[in-house]
Each structure stands twice: as C-alpha cells, then as structure tokens.
Fold this protein.
Amino acid sequence: MGRPALRYAAVTKSVLRLFSTALRTAEVSRSETPMQEFLERNPAALAALVGRPHAVWVLPRQALGKALGGGWQPDFLVCDWNSNGPEWTIVELESPTVQVVNTRGISHKCREAQQQISDYRRHLTENWKDLQVNGLPGAHHQARSWIVIGRRKTHKPRDRERVIDLRNDEIEVASYDRLYDKLGELVELRFSSRAASKKAIAAWARRKKRK
C-alpha cells in the first residue's frame, strides 16, 4: 500500500464521546460534513464496518481518475488485507437527517448513493491495473459497500424489505446509530483483549514465582 496500516487497536473509549458530539453537529447543520471530518480524524470507526479487520487502511476522498476527465471520489475506501489479499469496501455518507425511505420507497438520497457506488465499482473493475500502479492494489476485489444515512428508525415491513433488497447488490444500509454500535463493539473488543492479556501475564508471573 505504500503507507502504514491503521492502528485500530489503539482506539480509546473517548472516541465514542467524540462520535456523539460530531453527530449532534451534523444534525444541527443537516449535513454529513461533520461526520466526514470526524471519520477522517478517527478512521477506526470505519474499520469497525469490516468486523475484526486484519491489516486495514481507511482512505478518505481517494481520487479515482476518469477516462473522460474529472474524477470519482468515494467518501471512503476501506482496505482489509487478509489471507486472501486486499478486500475493498466503499463507504458513502449521507446526512443523519436524511431518511432512508419515504412514502414512495427508497429515498432519492439513498438511490443517489447507490448509483455512486455502482459507478465506483465499475471504475475499480475496469481500471484496476492503473489503480494498482497508483497505490490501490487489487482494487477490483471489492466486497460489500455501505451507505451510512439517517438515524435508527423502525420501518414498516414493506420499507424494511426494500432496504434489505439492496443487499442483493452487496450494499448494506446503516444508520449512524448502527455505526456507533459497531465502533462500541470494536472498543469493547480492544479493552477485553487488553484485560485478557493482563490476566494471562499475571498468571504466568505467578507460575514463574512458584518455580
């Protein structure tokens, strides 16, 4: 990758408070920009989307060239490098005040994000050799994408089915509350692992002392 992997295991509990503060600001401004800025400063929150990552990189607003000029620029690209090689995830952010569904079905903003992801995927697939030269190895190995939009809400069964149908296109739609929960799981995992390590070291020290 030509850049150091993210030290997601170094995340602290304070990041949850900072997340909540940024989310309140985003709601007041009715814009995703405060969350974009927060996630650029705290990329571990997006590493949490791929579960328990291996070596992971989070690339904000990575410019992707377009043959006819201009360029693609996903909000985030996440690379999880596991035993199968690099697996890429596209993340698109929308405002926390935008609804996933409306009276006509999937909202315009959510459909717009879906179309952007489709464009990015096509570009990654068609231009992976050039992208590899520019530091994005295996960019065509694209796994599930995420649209983070709105706040947690109970949907009617038909609307819930419409959102779930996006999974057929390997797109997961998540509220900012769900992203917060996933970050909390990563924080808990980190501190649980630390506690387990300390316990194992203490047990080893006791055995050593008895000898």
User: Anything to note?
Assistant: Residues 194-205 have pLDDT under 50 and may be disordered. The first strand starts at residue 55 and ends at 60. The chain has one domain: 8-199. The domain at 8-199 is CATH 3.40.91 (Restriction Endonuclease).
